[in-house]
Every structure is written in structure tokens, then in C-alpha cells.
Amino acid sequence: MTEALYGGVRFFQYRCKKGARGRIYETALALARMAHQAKALFIVNDHADIAVAVDADGVHLGQDDLPIEYARKLLGKKNIIGISTHSFEQAKRAEAAGADYIGFGPLFPTSTKDAGEAQGPQKLGAIRQLVTIPVIAIGGINHTNVQEALQAGADGVAVISAVLSAENIRLAAGDMIRLLSEVRRNL
Length: 187
Description:
By secondary structure, the protein is of the alpha/beta class. It is 45% helix and 15% strand.
């Protein structure tokens, strides 16, 4: 996280699919403190209770996690609640339930997450027209296809491998941020 912070990233999601909840809590607590010191936003994946316990800025839910309505009761109105969606129905339900944003995808093939078949930019564009909350493109986003995601209507992108697999995380993060800014200027 430190190198990505130095590279300019200001929104982090802690995602740990396997592991003891106590360990997830300890790691999330340390990461939340680090993010907040750097004035970055920090959300916890899947665990609304841990997000509250570590004073995270919010939670990102999956379709099989705590329903948005109950996560909102735990987190309150000021915290961010996002949810991964993979269909028109899920996107509409998420907005109606009070999600602050949706993650939509996987947009492109990805090895980071088993979330089914790639949805593609066209479907993201249709989702963008369907909901009024921000749509974050997830899945397989990298330096060569981020422009497609934004042109299709994504308000932002979630990136893992394109930055964390790089030899120089700080440089990869900075490059991605510059590319995002450049693409947005040209839209």
C-alpha cells in the first residue's frame, strides 16, 4: 500500500478472501490507519462489521455478502457502500437498496477473481444508462484497456494486477493515474 500511496492512489480496498477474521481485522486496522494518515479513502471488502471496527470509510460487498440495507445500518449514512454486480438486475437492485456505487464486471478476462465471463464495454455502457450512481469497472483493467472502460461510461476503475504485479508499484500506480487523467480530458 505504501508504494501505491506514493504513486498517488487515494482509494484503497482491502480484499482478503481467505484467512482468519482476527487476522483480517488486524491487517485492516493497520491499513486503515496508513490510508487515513495519507488522506486516502479505505474500504474493507465483504466484512461490514470489520469496516466499522477499524473505522474504514466503507465496505465493498459481493452478491453473497450482507445485504446493503443491513450494511447501511452498521455503517451509517456517512460511510461508503459499494457492491459488485454482474447483470442489469443486480445493478438496479443495488441502486434501489442504497448503494453508493456499483462495481461492474468483470469487464475483461481476469485471473484475480473468479467472477464469470467477461461482460465487455458494451454491457458496461448499458449499465451506465440504467443507473444514476457511479459505476466502477472491475476485472482485467490495465494500461491497454482502461480507455475502453472510461469510454464505455465507467466513472472509475478498480485495478489490482496492473499495479501490484508491476516491478515498480509506485511507477505503475502513477502511470495509471496519469493515463486515467489523460483519457478523461479527451472524452
